[in-house]
Each structure stands twice: as C-alpha cells, then as structure tokens.
Amino acid sequence: MNKLIKTFASVGFFVLVSFLATETATGQNLTENLATDPKVTIGTLKNGMKYYIRPNSKPENKVELRLIVNVGSLLEDDDQQGLAHFTEHMLFNGTKNFPKNELVNNLQSMGVQFGADLNAETRFDETVYMLPIPTDNPKNLETGFQILQDWAHGALMTDKDIDEERKIVLEEARSSKGARDRLQRKVLPELLANSRYSQRLPIGKEDLLRTFKPEVLKRFYKEWYRPDLMAVVVVGDVTAEKAETLVKKYFSTLTNPTKGRARTVYGASPYTKQSAMFLTDPEQSSTMLSINFSPRKTEADKTTGDYRNTLVEQLAFSAINLRYQDMASSATPPFAAAQTANSSFIRGYQALTITVIPTSDLTTALNAGVGELISIQEYGFTTAELELVKKRMLSYIEKQYNERSTTNSSAYLKEYERNFLAGEAAPGIEKEVELYRTLLPGITAEEVTAAFNKLFSKEDQEKFFAFVMSPETKDAAINSDATLLAAIEKSFAQKVTKKTDVTVSDTLLDQMPAKGSITKVQKEAKLQITTYTLSNGIKVTVKSTAFKSDEILFRGVKRGGTNSYGVKDKATVSMLGNLIQTMGYGKFTPTVLTKTLAGKNIGLRTSMTPTTNIVEGQSDIKGLESLLQLNYLELTQPRLDQELFNGFVSTAQMQLKFIKSNPQAAFVDGLITEMFNNNPLKPIAVPSEEDIALLNAQRAVAIYKKEFSSADGYHFFLVGNVDESVLKPLLEQYVASLPATGKEPEFVDNGLRIKPGNNKFVFKKGTEPQSLIIAQYFGEMPYSEDMALKANLIGDILTIRVIEKLREEMGSIYSGNFSGSMEKEPFPSYTIITQLPTGPENVDAILKQTDVEIAKLKKDGPEQKDLDKVRIATIEKRREEIKTNAYWLSKLQQLEFSGYSIERFLNFENEINKITVKDIKKAANKFFDGKNSFIAILNPEK
Prior knowledge:
Largest sheet: 7 strands, mixed
Shape: globular
Number of helices: 32
Protein name: Insulinase family protein
GO molecular function, one term: metallopeptidase activity
Strand content: 15-25%
Signal peptide: 1-21
Helix content: 40-55%
Number of domains: 4
Mean pLDDT: 94
CATH class of the largest domain: Alpha Beta
C-alpha cells in the first residue's frame, strides 16, 4: 500500500455513532477487507513457498526478481552473530550451478552490474536478494530463476571460500565505522529497550566473523533457508502464465527440514521510566536530539477502516512536519530541521519519535520541537492546515493513478515484500485512489487531533528514552544526562500559543506578463522534436512522449556559470540557488509559496555549473501552466529579505561549525586545497566560516538577476506528455514574455587547473583504522565523443578488475570503482578517477595492484570478455534509459544546446560495437600517459 508517511494502523472500530457517520459520509464499508489487486497473482506452493507475479511492461524486456527470506540477524544463535549477513555474501560466491565467481560473471555477460543491479540486503528480520534480468535473450529468464533456486538451497560454502570471504565482510564492517557508529552502539540497547534487536546487529561481531568455524555458518543456512520461510517476487515484462510455470519448475521440488526450528517472533517492551543519554564524540559533525516514546504493537492494514485510520495519522504527521518546515524556514529558525514520525525499529511495532537538529542551542530547538506538539494537544489542528495537507496527499495519489500504465516494475516490489512479511494488504492503485477520494473529505481536524493525542498522551510523556549525539559538551544548559532529562521535562510543561493560519494566495502572478509570440517553428524528424523560436530570442525544444502518462520535465540552460565570478563572489555563486530560494520570490516567502503550491505536482529550482546557468523543474499534465507561471515568477522576481537571509546564514554557520570533525569531510577539503595548489578560485567542498561571512543578500539578488532574469541565450526543453496545441499559447504568455537585453551570454575559462605532474597527498585524521584512496589521472585533450565513450568504457573495465583483484582475490576492499569522463568546457579535458575505501594496512598493496592493472591495460588492452561485459551493460542501460523522459531531457541538451552529433546518437550501438580491444588499449595509453596524476590517501591519525 502507498504510504506518504509510514505510520501504524489502529486496530478496532470507532464508536457506533462515529462509525455510522463515516459510513454515510464516505459510502465505504469500514469493516470490509481490502481485496488484493487483481493484476497480481499470489500463490503458495505445497512446500509453503509463497510467490507474487505481476506482469508489467515498463521497462520493456526486463524482469525484476526477488527472493525474500523471512530470516535475518534476529534468528542467529549466540555463536552465529553476523552470519545471516555472511550467508548473503556466500550466495554470491559459489552455488551448485554457479561455482565461485561464475554467478557474477554470468550476469555481467547479460549486462547486469554487480552492486548497481545485482545486490542483497540483510536486516534484523529478513534478507532480500535483488536480481534484475534483461529478457531480450529468452535464456536469461531461465538463468535468473536458476540463480534464485541456487540461492534458496544450492549454496556451496566451501571452507576455502568462507575463509576468503571473511576479509571482504570485515572490510564492509570497517566501512561503517566512525562517530555515528560508535554513538549508535551506545544508544541502541536503551533505544531498543534491551530487546533481542539490540543484541543482533546485522553486521555482527568482528571477533566472531574472524574465528567462526564454517560448520556454524552452514548450520544457519541449513536451518533457516527453507521454502516455508521464503517468497519469490516476479514483476516485469513476462506473462503471468510463464512466470508461474517457472516458479513451479524451480521451486516446487524444494523441501523443508523434517524437524524445522520454529521461526520465533521477537517483540519489544515499553519503556518503564524517563531516561536520557547525552553522548559526545569529537568526530561527530553535528548535534541531534531524539525523544523516543514506548513502542506500540501494531497490525498491518487489512480493512477499509484500518486504511482510514492510517490516513488520519498520515494527515497528523504531515501537518506537524509542515509546521516544522515553516519554523526552519523562518527569519529566526529554532532548528535546522525537525521531524515527528512513527518510527518502526522493530517489526510489528511503531514508536512516536521527535528529532531536532539545533541552529544555536539545544534548549531552543527542544522547546520549539516539543512546543508544537503541546500546542496541538491543547488547541488541535486547524481545518485550514489539514485541507492543505489533504490537497497534497490527494494530488500525490492521483498522479500515481494517472501513471498506472507506465509505472516502473521496481515500484511494486516493496508492496509485495510488505504483504509477505507483515501481511499488509495490496489493493492496487485503482482501489487506493478510490479510498483517498472517498475517505479524505470526511476526516475532520478534531478526529486527526484526537488520533495524534493518543500517540502523544500525558502517560506517554512519563516514559521515554531520549538521547543527544553531539561533537561537544559546551551547550549552556544541556550538557549531561541529567540536564537533558530536566530540559525535556520542562519542555513538556511549557506554555504555548495557538497556531494562526496564513492567508494563501490562489494565484502565482498578480498580473499577466506582456505576451510575446512564436516567430519560427522547426521540426527534426529523426529525433521527433519541435523547436520553437520566440520573439525574445529564446528557443524551446519539445519532445512529446508517452513514457510516463502524467509527467512533464522542464529545463532551461544558458551560457554563464560560476567561472564568471571572482574570489569575493565565489561563495555566493556556489550557493546562489539556495540563497534566493531562502528569501522567496515576488510576494511569496518560501513557506507561503509552499502552501500556494499545495496540491500542484510542480517544482522548480535553479543552479549554476562553472559554465552554465540552469533552471529545472517538473509537473504533471494539469500543472503545466502553473509550472511556466512559477518559472516566470522565479526568474524575474527574486525577493530580497534580509531577515530570512540572516536565518539561512545562522543555520549554515551551525551546520558547518563541526563539519570538518568528520575525517572524510576534512580529507576532501584538504585534498581540494592541495589539488588546486591553494588557488583561491578552487571549488568549495566544505564552506568555511570565511565563506559564510562573505555571503551578501543584495549581491546575491544582483547576481541572480544578471544570470537568470533575462531571456538572452536561453534554450528551454520540455519532454513528456506534452500537448503542443496546449503548450504554444503558454509559451507565448510566460516564456516569450521574459525580458531580453540582446546581449548573448558567454562562459569564462578562469584558468583554474589541477596541479600538474604526478603528485601524492597523504592526510591523517580519525581514530578508526579506516583509509580512503582517491586517485585521479587527468589531462587536457581535444574533446571527441568517441574518446569520451572510451573513457567511460575504461572506467567500467577497470571497475571489473577492481572487483576481481582487489575484492575477490585480495579481500582488500568491500566496494570501489573507476569512472572515466571527458569535458568540453571550460577547456577540453579528461579525468579517470577511482575511490577505494580500505584499511591503512592495505593501502600500499592496493596502489601497487592498481598500477599493475593500468599497466596491463596499456600493454595488452582489456580482456575481450571484459570489453564485452561493459559494452552489453552500457547498451542494456541505454535501452532502458532511452524510454525515460529524464534521459531525453539531458540528451536533447547535449544535442541541441551543446552541439553533440545527432547521427552518432542515433547509431550509438553501432558505434560502441565497433570499439575493439586494440582501440581501448590505444585510448588507455593516451589517458594514462604518465604525465599527470593525483593520488590522495586518508589514513587514521595513529
């Protein structure tokens, strides 16, 4: 089921009067069970394995397969902690029909990428295996089912493979270390009320992972991987009949143990008192406070009444969090962000949580966050704010309904997973939109208030667990467990005021702009696009598609960019979009604009690259005029509001105050400084106090007007379900009316370059035994699309080598990759870059092996099988992406604005298939010419 905010459903019925009133108002029988979507086939084999099949043609020639095992780390014995997750690793590392690495190799030959496509996830209660299969070759689907069958009961788990995998699992455990991990490990026993969940983190215990005997792992697999605890999900471009035949063929023969262990269901206990922890860590980069109330047993939505209860709670949480957004966007924000939610740490339980991230002191943030909840308790929600939230929710669900025939297969997977694991109904979008339309209007503010007050009752406030994670203990009032607890108790007793509703305008523009005209129309048959030239010089290229039933993507681009500005303006232009958005547009503050746009599925944002200015947004079909009105408003009427600007600055100062406490943030900041030889024009990775001090509201508005407000040089693109007969008068009214000066904008090459030569930078920070290698190989080179493609392929080929050598053979990394790219502007150049997280003891060996792989590529070129793998992966990815609006939006910008070759684009598969091992070898010798490299290494301090 769709959840705008995942909340729990209350069990039971309303009192008779309320029930009858709702029955009359909505026409819905609240006791009626929610039927299952008829488009999905759900069945159970004789061995107890469940299956879900849903034919779906988006994207074409692709099927999403999932194997869900209703077993996670909770089911581990004391000597198996971490082995549920270890089992997941082993299933990619040798099965009956795919020994050792043949599984990954086989899938790569289909175009399925390890990590990006092929993956798995182990949680407390379950393990989910993810396998997308391209079906343009009929044999692929059979292979996919064979892999799922092997995962279900065909693991090899040789002692040798287990021992080799230990290093990789330990590298994964290493990657999560740091301040947050250290603090969370202190918090979790209290947060989870010392339940079994707090004792069974999926990553497990490192000492055990190093020393467990293989028989212990095999015991876990044998006892728990069995059909009565499994489900297979098949969603995609396949008939239900064929999918069901394959499910029965591959899984009917699986058997359960004669005396299978019972699958224990573990629960949660309520808190018995008020308790608090104030925790600090010198590497923590920000302060966060969280108040958690006792977990409550819940049941999944099964009836219309359950569904209505969930909608009531969704309204409550949406309205609360909208209030928090307003406060965070105010001139004196009490917090950078705040949220109240029903969190689900434990399956079958949910708990009310309040989280705040302060902008100044904790006391102010705490009182503001809790105060809003006290205000709701005392005065309730207003009808006006709930009507606004209802608009949003209804608009969201109706857009999903409108796109029901073009929904991507991946969108259905979580719904079927929840049905299997939690018993949640899966009624389908047709039924859900009907429920929204009939149930939402009858839900009153009083009812929503009452529902929330059940979750935030006086009794709940007497038993909770709160914690702070902070980099320091210098807060004036809250700096210990005792002072935190006292401050929370005091916040519950504060006096609050009633919320006042803000008057919201119905229109974005007070008056219509002077209408322009279309002066020229050009059609490009090969790309099936139309380009309109407008009277103010703007070009608008339109491609009407049916990829999504209710989606229109929009982008405007022009020359310019951050390179046109010097050191004094560097910080302002790097944050320009956020600065202007913070102050609002025309008569609208950000909060008022948000409310004005409620119920409209539109959005718009501006940004700058070094050489371009971009405005980008999206809408549904009915929102197209509003989107173009919003575009006119935002481009022509930036709002100067010094108080809101000051609020942004104060929030930024607090958020950035401790950012460099994080070792990786400090490393990247130091790396950029060193890489660009301390050039004052270097990019801003982590804004400094000096950067923030240079921000200026008047200057920001002046730059914005210069860069965005004039029509000169703009090329706009619209892709999606566009009716051009409807669009043309809108272009004349809202786009051709943008003012023009007649001066064509240009970009600037400001001379910024990476330090030439072969350089090495070693940075030491952090207490954990973690290292990070970032290696770049770069240079200037005349741009060509052919060489850009070869740079991409070289990055993908080296990624395969990284997985095979550094991960599988050496066990030195858990993840890592290479990527290659070329740029035309501001100067023609290339970059091949790799990021490899590891341990300090592995750094030298990794660098040595990386040099070996590059040298081998230069000497011999890639192995043919590796070139074939990356070629088919690229082709498969393009075949899927070319049926999306987002792909075409970016591609049209390249073709129509940046001058890329249309013929090459149309013949892409021929172009990539022409590339040989010899071609890659030749390109590698140009890219890795030995002249320029920058090797950066983050090591711990000790």
